[in-house]
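User: These chains co-purify. Model them together.
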Amino acid sequence: MPLATEPITINVGPQHPSTHGVFRMRVTFDGEEVIDVEPIFGYLHRGSEKLAESRTYTQIVTLTDRMDYVASMNSNMSYILSVEQLAGIEPSPRGVWLRMIAAELQRIASHLVATGFFLQDLGALGTPLIFTMRERELVLELFERLCGARITSSYMRPGGVFMDAPDDFWPALDRFLAEMPHRIDEYEQLISGNEIVMVRCDGVAVVDSQTLINASVTGPMLRASGVDWDLRHRQPYEYYDQIKFNRPLATASDNYARYIVRVHEMRESLSIVRQCIEQIEPGPVRPKEVPALIRPPAGDAYVGTECPKGELGFYLVSDGGVAPYRCKVRAPSLINLTLLRDMLIGYKLADLFVTFGSIDINMGEVDR
Amino acid sequence: MPDPFDSVLYRHIYCTLSSTADAQCEGVGLFGGGLLPGGFEWLAFVLTGVIIVAALINGILGAVLLMIWGERRLLGRLQGRTGPNRWGPFGLLTPIADAVKTMFKEDVVPTVSDRLVFTLAPILMLFPALLVYAVLPIGHGTWLADINVALLFIVAIGGANVLAIVAAAWGSGNRYAMFSAMRAVAMLISYEIPLVISLVGVIMLSGSLSLVAIVNAQTIPFFIIQPLGFFVFVVASMAELNRTPFDVAEAESEIVAGYMTDYSSMKFGLFFLAEFAATIATSGVITVLFLGGWHGFDPIPSQIWFIAKMVGVLALIVWVRASWPRLRIDQIMAFAWKALFELTLINLVVSGLLMLAWPSPSTTELWYMAGINWLVFIASIILFGKLLGPKHDPVSAGNVQRDVTLSDSDAPAIPSGGGG
Amino acid sequence: MVYGFGLVRGMGVTLKTLLRPAFTVQYPDRRVGLIGAARAYGISTPGLIFKRPIKALRALLGLERIAVRPTQSPRFRGNDFTWYEERCTGCANCAKYCPLGIIKIVTVPGGIDVQEGESYAIETFDIDTGRCMFCALCVEACPFDALHMGTNFELSNFQREALVITKEELISQPKYPSTWFRPQMEESAYSPFDDLMEDMKRAGRHEMPSVELMTERWVEERKTDEAVDD
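Assistant: Joint model of the three components:
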């Protein structure tokens, strides 16, 4: 006689230790197996896009800090590029190099957070998380030297950056670049070869690349499925066309592939920063002719940039005023999250959070 | 029936109280003995028991507090942090502050809970953890009871906390808790089997179920003679204790706090206490069965030896906790039934054959046994690693192509601002 | 690779970490051992043991603590502001630039005949740090270098009202301005963690012109304007 069983529904979040912010999933389980996931978000909605309509172009920079708050430099950069295209501002070369250095450092920091929390979701009781936070601290210290803030940087301005790097920034950056490869090796020793990590992640939450492309997923998640799509290479913005870098690809498209791609991207970012340091030359960081109050001509602009989480772009529409008529954010976290249901069905409860961690989302950016 | 006077503790306290000139009381007993009037031997008997139990329970509580401090401190150091260091010297008073805080918290009982079961579960959880100490010999002549089926008693008591976990989960009426209980039941029952079978080798070697006899039989610590049994017992014990990497029953990143989700205040404190008491008890049992118990060399007292070995086992458990992630429940079950169970059977057969060859082994013969057992251990680990390990290795299987450069891409670069 | 070597290597990493000193920073004070305490008090370790045995014993027990200030960059944007009343003209550029509109300025005509460029008397200068996000755009907007970010971050309160920094507080509090967007301070290698910056002349890019000078300028400007008009 078969046992009468019924599925069990649990509201995971918004108060749950591993929802990376305030995210809620209504998950239906058959025993330990996930049979349905319904993501519910909006708990961190602050109306950034609407707020942007009532602020000047410089003031919006502070809003972009608070979208993806573990990668604020990248958000800054993406927004500034859109504004520069909209207003036709030619940035100063030194400003651009500084922006690239800051963005790549921020990419390292963001990937460190992603790796740490991914391992935390695996149940590694803090050790990898604390290790990655230790290295993120080095990056944040550099940011503090650069722009006085650690998280909400507001470093970039239309035309470049607000101020040149202080003298003590460069030796500190060199020290960081010398130290960091060893630290990444340490994670690889602790995590990459760990059999438990392998059996937990290998072949879990596999999505084929066609599904990912159809869902317009970008970033490390797409590259982990073997699709060579990196906007820094495909649509070079800033001076990325003057930089040589490898794009780590994985083919398995499982949780392990997503993890290992991030680790390798950190190494590539270090090499990009090194090349930026070689090519940067003294000069002004912001052209003098950029007005304090920008009034771009009527029109629209969109520049997609490769953020740690995927393609981030600001679509700005101007009616000629001091504030944008419309500011639409293409947030990679939100779009990558749309595949959550397809990735999880058929896997276990424990894989739920690991997969969620491997997507690497940031609720500040999802809900905006 | 063993004589209670074998226990040094019992002999001293009883002889201090009782006024009867017992043969065992020659020269022992403080204050010349006989604090109670004649005819009150029964009272002396009862009082001795009460005093020993009170001392033991308070000792356990003290040990638990120390262990909480030690675990947090060691975990912190293993992670490159300092660990608690604010309250008292080196943070030693931190667990006391924790205990006070726990006691003063509001005791929340969920409205959907089954009140009686909800309240009983923490008590039920603590009992088995404490009972194990009754038979645990922690030094030469320092034990509460030396019963001849002590090993069976420990195994039987150790399985009882499943009941408490299910009661807690059922009583709190929480779905996370129910997940935890189901996981715990499945896991604990599965791991009980290799745990018990792995002990058979020890029993065969020592020829007794009494822990004191087992310690006395260890001229060579049994982990040298029985590596496979030791390995299986440690792994299965960690699963029984819900410690990393087998902590699925209270996996905080998955099911919040498992069966403890809805508990607060001292009820939660009791769970916490029980868990740590059980951890200490299990490390004590591992010490007794495999690490030679209180044996050591002389100027240092046997009790210190025992505690030192126990602390070593505890440190290993914490070290593992700091280093490894958690396994998934189906992998844990597969590990129990596909690996540990077979490994114990191999150990059982090999140990049995060796006992047939050398029915009462001398020291040299014990070393032969150890050699053969180590060969079997390594061979079977390699065999099971091949059979059950990850089917392909993601690191070396060419999963990651690191050398994609700008030039060898087939698609041309789209200019910036082209509309993406 | 699959026999648990990866697990053992992971344990090796944590063991290596155990043997290295902790990388975390203790704040606001740090527990020191015997050697650390001796170094903190500037005497040799035997000197500490023999001359101040109680302190040595406390250090041995891990009870001795010394205050710690986290290392900060001079550009650090703290949770407060530094304001030089003498430099401020009451132009309210900062209030205009503030994305949140939390700077409240009320000015009254201060001079005998108020002309362009002359300073107004500032009656109110309130910054509501309870709503502030410390983006420092106000500092960037200030044309006279009167407003600076502060470097203090240990400000917390139980009342929201107490988070409003008033003009009086801004005047009376010790001035440790951040060098954020103040290149002249960075060039003079000023560090807010070492010394005060009470001198308002040093804090700014240029000295504020006197009233006479400004009147003169204004007259000059009017003259040229009139010339153009003609």
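The CA atoms of residues 24 and 409 of chain B lie 91 Å apart.
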